[in-house]
Amino acid sequence: MNEKNSLGLDKCFLDLDNPFELFEKWFEEAKSKEINDPNALALGTANKKGIPSVRMVLLKDFDKNGFVFYTNLNSQKGNEIKENPNATMCFHWKSLLRQIRINGRLKQVDDKIADNYYKTRAYESRIGAWASKQSSILKSREELLNNLENFKKKYNDIKNVPRPDHWSGWNLKPSSIEFWLDGDNRIHERLKYTLNEKNIWIKTLLSP
After folding, report:
1. 71 lies in a domain?
2. Residue 124, pLDDT above cutoff 80
3. Of 13, 18, 85, 184, which one is least surrounded by beta carbons within 10 A?
4. How many CA atoms does the CB half-sphere of 54 hold within 13 Å?
């Protein structure tokens, strides 16, 4: 018989009051079993008119304050976030048959945090942050390649490439986090944590 937690869910849900602790457990398992990019997530944003868009980004950090990714601030998602900071994230780990959905509001990370992360990126990636006007229309692929070469000439010291002002990170501070486990005959198991007005996480079981 499969082991269950106190809520009657699979033991992988554990019995934790803090969703960040459960996220960390699931994320660590995903890193050991997912073939590619276990930190990949679908990021959903919407502009001021409420028109949604979604794309894959990479989680670069997380703690009790939220989940962090980096991007060009002038990209489509960057402009949408400036207009409407409400956003959602979804992790899907096919090898584990698990998902995690997160809703919350985005806030730009401090410059020092962005600088420290930017320095860890490969030289080519740092140059790319300068050369690519993300989401803008290209006249040709050659235009982008020329920009890359020009910025390589400008910043030819691989140890000294400053972070562009238009490139930084966003932190999603969650208001809810839902953990999902695939079940036989689509009778899935779902556990949702919701942050109440007293800053306490409340656990709720959801129907599949």
Report:
1. yes
2. yes
3. 184
4. 9
